[in-house]
Amino acid sequence: MIEVRALTKSFRDKKRGTFRAVDELSFDCPGGPVFGLLGLNGAGKTTTLRVLATMLKPDSGTAKLAGFDLLDDPESVRRKIGFLTGNTGLYLRLTGREILHYFGQLEGMTRKAVDARITIFSQLLDMESFLDTRVDKYSTGMKQKVSIARTLIHDPPVLILDEPTLGLDVVTSRAIVEFIRAAKTDGKAVIFSTHHMHEAARLCDTIGVIHEGRMKRLATLADLKREYATEDLDTIFLRIIADGRP
Ligand SMILES: Nc1ncnc2c1ncn2[C@@H]1O[C@H](COP(=O)(O)OP(=O)(O)OP(=O)(O)O)[C@@H](O)[C@H]1O
Ligand SMILES: [Mg+2]
Question: Is the Cα torsion angle 93, 87, 157, 182 positive or negative in sign?
Answer without folding.
Answer: negative
